[in-house]
Protein 1
Amino acid sequence: MSSPRIATNREAPSALLERFIQEFKFKLCITEQEKHKVYRLRHDVYCEELQYEEPTDPYNKLEYDIHDQNSIHCLIEHRRTGLVAGCVRVVIPKPSSPQPLNQLPLQTYGSQSLTHPEFHPEKLAINSYYEISRLAVNPLFRTKAKEKEKDILANTSTSTFFSVEERQLFSLLASGLFITGYSLGKQLGKIQVFAMMEPSLPRLLALTGFHFTKVGETINFHGRRSAYYIDKQKAESGLKKTLLPLYLHIQQTLAPQLEEMLAQEASISLTM
């Protein structure tokens, strides 16, 4: 995972959070059309901007991989413009599936780097953990994107520009995406989280109260990356009180959507 800027604005944090909740929408991707919005943003960020991945579907400009079969996808949408501001996925391995669907993505490409004697996926109950990955923030919604806004918008179907007040909220997106990933895992009964991150991102997430433990050696995978771990107790005891309203809002917003998604999946399984 690359390192978008985390919110550190100390001016009226409660007011900023309230505006953020009002101006952005948290949505689980249930339909294929919604998932394609995520895959398109991932293509724009991971394939075109960072050149980390080859496009899976160059014609439609989509990026996805085999682990998306075991993933729940969420996007954050800007209400006024309807633009996708960011996305994240939660990957849940299935023990009965063939490799690599029975493991986390970080095990697929970085298994040799996992060195922690206790916090290793193979030493934990497989139904207890998941991975937060493919976090991406739309370049338009980054705090330093103003100088590039005209060029980016010239290649899109919108001519909307953002006000200073709207830009003040952009630094909350990465925090919101990570809290979203954590909240989804918790609602699924998972208590242990893994993520593959570049060195600066855990330090930035620590500002929100997520204090990760490094559980693997640094490897060269799209730049320098290491595996990190945090459990439910440490995450919830460390979360900054100023972010609690956002955490509760995300939980309350996603709970009925997750229930709908699981009901649909159960219905499909019964008809197969």
Protein 2
Amino acid sequence: MDWHKNRLPIAGLLLIAVGGLAIWAWGVRTGDTPVRETQQARGFPDLSRDQISVIEITRPEAEGQTIRLERREDQWFVTQPIEVVADQSAVSTALDKLDELAVAGVAASNPEFHERLEVDPGHGVRVVARGADGNALADLWIGAYRSGNTMVRLEGEERVVSVRGSIKFAFNKELRDWRDRAILNVEADDVTEAAWRGPNGTFRFTRAAAAAPAAPEGEGETPSAQPELGEWQQTEISYLPPAPAEPETPPAGRRPPPAPAAPTPLTAIEGFQAGKVRSMVASLARMRAADFAAPDVTPESAGLGPDAPRVTLTTRGEGDAGPQTFTVILGNEANAERHDFYAQREGEPTIYVISRFLGERVNPTATSFTESAPTTPPGEGEGAHGEGMPMPMPGGEGGGAQLPPEVMEQIRRQLEQQGLGGGAGP
């Protein structure tokens, strides 16, 4: 072979081979090459949610503060930096993500890539899962989301693996998002009395069980659920009528008109709509907080004294249990820009922050129970399922674009801040 004649094609082939080798080597270092099935579990923990009794989370934004979640029997609690009931649904999501960890490949083997992949202490979320004995089952740094995978590094290792799916959103939460936001959690269909007391008046409505339909002839009586309750009725009403317009100033030299007599409180709401009570009770029965008061806020500074507006819901008892009452007290405005309010459940120490929408339902006026009640501004109405329901996204199930978990989490938080939110999971 005449090497001199063919030296250019040979050099080109060598260059291509060297380039391909370099690309392959870079892929192994950065995770573009998937690992074999036998390599996926090598040194990486295989977790089961039933094994986990403690989760410790440290976020870079929290300046080293660690949030500790702990299972006690069948319920989870936040035990650090404060001790309160945890949001069971949020904890369940975190447990699911730990249980479903599946390694897709090696993302990097050199520590110089830790910062870029956000698995270093300055960017990553550190998650330590512990068993009932307190020993660590896994110590993970959870980092960036790349091409459908999440970057994860075991504490003490240089290797970074890519884990299938998005998991960081389940742990990268502020303390308030781990706390149980449920203020009231009762069945609206079981509420037999709703009573409001505040500066706008006293409003008490009741409803009794509707008469059960007669059983068809020839059929014996069968045990059934509790009978449905009837429609809401005015029971105790006391409020002042709207103040009359200020009289015009009389011309000079004329005697001013006599001062009007003190108004007599009204004892019935003209144009009363039972559906307004039903709507309010439905909102209050599943009341959720938007936030929590700062540690230095006291009931006195929040305006939660004995004269503060309040609402009391009474439910019928089941079996041998008698009726139960639940009272929520409304305090001062917590934030002038958002127009939200402090609130507290009577007999409990936690001071919540609730939306303006819920604040208006704790402290209504007489017109709130009439057909002429003003409509709620856009973004604060009840919508199809409650307040502030977002418009459906195009696509949805069966086609179209799907929202990433991070966006779904933001929507969930917005709903909770407006007073919707989901109930605590099991």
Protein 3
Amino acid sequence: MPADLTAAAETAVEQCLNVEADESVVVVTDDRREAIGEALYAAAAAVTDDATILRYPPAEQHGTEPPAPVAAAMAESDAFLAPTTKSLSHTRARGAACDAGARGATLPGITADVFTTGLDADYAAIDAACDDMLAQVGDAAEVRVTSPAGTDITVGIGDREWLADTGSVREPGDFSNLPAGEVFVAPETATGTFVIDGTMMPHGLLDEDQTLRFEVDDGRVTAIDDDAVRAEVETAAESVGDAAYTLAELGIGTNVGVEELVGSVLLDEKAAGTVHIAIGDNAGIGGDTDAPIHLDGILRDPTVYADGDEIDLPTA
């Protein structure tokens, strides 16, 4: 087991999830993330005798439900870790597991470099940055985001609750991405334009002069100027219709240890001072859209206003 993966796996198991000797742990992985899955399994097995690893073929899209036996194992565990190629964060399986009292973390699209870099972080500082962001935006009825690339979008929060992804997953039902560091909400409404100039799949890290432009009206994405992203949303729409075009999430990165974008959505959306906006599913984060897709895009150099007042974004 490479030492660098071992250290990061121990951070996840011992610090983030605080696994104890009498607890059951399930590691869910796939054929492309097996090395990280095995590292997490080894770290869990060093703490508890009740550790299990399950592997299945990679899904084709983020948000695809895992096989039923995997979902059942997650729900019956005390803690789960899911390093998978495609995200399980917004699946019914993940939600049901947390509802059943399991605590866990998903690591969608994780690579060895992101695993070791993202988990080498000061989680107390991330927690403090999340608390500060929640204090600034938590009571706002409306949030506006602008950026030099051309973003100008306003979202209505309504009755939706801002959530924090701190990396501390210690109580029954707790959930986080790892690497962690964001506050986010599933808006009730949204109108305007957002322009991605950071990272977005299927492209990864965008070139310096490359942007992806999206028009939004009444909570739906109405125009996408990129063929590849449009194709992914259209594929999801074949099964769920217009729900695939939902403006699903607004998030603010709070990981003060991430100093630059690297092309991994999982890590880049956590970068302090960035904003990310997602299309598709948000049922797992307080929304009501159930869709087989959740596409995040990262904006560089945003300005964020809560009820008209500019907020102070964290910095790395």
Protein 4
Amino acid sequence: MSAARAIGLLLGVAADGVIGDPKRGRPVAVFARAARRLEGRLTGDRKLAGAVYAGGLAGVAVLCGVVTERAGRRSPVLQAAGTAATTWAVLGGAGLALDGTALARDLEEGELEAARDTLSHLDPRTTEDLDVIALSRASVETVAENTANAVVGPLFWGAVAGVPGLLGSRAITVLRKLFGPRPGQVAWFAVRLDDVVNLLPTRVAAALTVAGAPVVGGSAAESWRAWRRDTTAHPSPNAGRVEAAFAGALEIRLGGRTVYPHGVEELPVLGVGRNPDAGHVTRAVELSRVVGWLAGASSVVLAALLGLRKR
């Protein structure tokens, strides 16, 4: 099973890079639409309903993963195929690269309305009044955050727990994203669950960012310093770790005042360089790809090593 899992992860990462997202019926988007419809039907004790809602949907995703693995447990080929298909379905690396490239192009060409529209589908912050610098900052932050949540996280849990880990971790991330940073009784359990599930993967993503920084002409030393120095004041146990590592790698400043529909948040400033521009968004996309490749290779090695330990 360990070899089949490792091969499946490798094939899934390759499929995401070569094939990209399906044009229609992308599983993550289908799950998000279903979750949003169910959210609108929640009644009664909002806090309890939120726990049942998030826990139930995440549990269903994990159960589907268990069924998939059991169906192929007697055939290494089926096991690898199931892992590969699931990895391809949940990874967001290719889609993130396309969106990030579109943002960089629109910012370079001065198409700010198009950039605001693209960003609004990726990030919950208010985009109407953002200028070029603010849009560039938000774009780099979004690329960094989604690299951790949509690429590194699923691969980490896929290596550790197979198909259930792939589906469960991605489902939890999607649920957190539906609520965004807004407070509320329904959101509390999804937020806490996401904090726990991404505690290790977020730090793995930051470490891979440090390692991959020189590949895109960035600074590994600054990436490390920003990660270790600037996130200590961040109110979240995970948010800002990868963003700080990206900021240091690209030698720019991220964070600071951020406007959301529910209000303004004064977040820690990450990095000590200049304000970002469209060119930094392009380099952030390149860095995201490098981190994704490193995460893919690391997940294959981790799955193989965990398999050897079980023997």
